[in-house]
Amino acid sequence: MSEPTRRPDGDTGDGTGDDTTSGHAPDPGSGMLRVFGRQLKRFRLRAGLERPEFGARLGYSVSTIAAYEQGRRVPPPRFIDQADELLDAGEVLKEMKEEVARAQYPAFFRDAAKLESEAVELHVYATKAVPGLLQTEEYARAVFTMSRPLLPEETVEQRVAARLARQETLAKVPLPTISFAIEESVLRRPLGGRAVMRGQLEQVLLIGQRRNVEIQVVPTDVEEHAGLEGPFTLIETRDGRRIAYVEGYKDSRLHTDRKPVRELEEQYGILRAQALTPRASLTFVEKLLGEP
Q1: pTM for the whole thing?
Q2: What is the C-alpha to C-alpha distance for residues 115 and 68, in angstroms, rounded to an integer?
Q3: CATH 1.10.260.40 spans which residues of the chain?
Q4: Which of 81, 104, 114 is nearest to 28 (CA)?
Q5: For residue 173, which of 127, 252, 120 has the smallest C-alpha distance?
């Protein structure tokens, strides 16, 4: 079965195969946020703390605490850890952290984010921007800041935090097998400026040296190209499901039927054959870093 996940008008993807850009903030009425907020308030009252004192101890304003308790804002992981310990919540709040984090993503990406977190294999083809799992904080912020229509500053910061949190996938245990096929043009496009892009290329080199990660560059001058239909992500979960996530304008889709998934797997296999080898790709990135 293929499951369309429609985006609200104005939403676009940046080709990273992930929670790219959206003209809307996370759903304020998200069920998980409301559940977390009720639990947070219950533990706060049990501890005999009013919002001003609770917020002061953790370094948050009264209005921010109220927004968390009412499910109107997504609390960061650090806040959840601190609140659980201060309120002696017995890790009840910490256990909700992963689901709460997914509420930061646009609605269209939440199912894909859950599958990504469960992946034993993850393969990403990127055509427009460096894949989200490889992005530095500065590069991610540049991507979200450039989104049109413009995102509110608070939403930009939430999206950046969510993207960086996703990168825990790279190092989870047991290590998943992860590969990236990235168009050369992506690595030459200095989003955010030269300094930001230099930091991004350095990060690509660093992550590319991990045992479980392979990065391949698809040269611009390649005469045969299997990925002309655009970016996608292939996911295999712990229970053996093989799924493809494909981005499109206003319409992202999770494919679970074997036929479309197999077709994209075939495309990816040929793309990797047409790309530079992982070692040659890292050498290519080093060469880019040496260019003025």
Answers
A1: 0.74
A2: 26
A3: 31-102
A4: 104
A5: 120
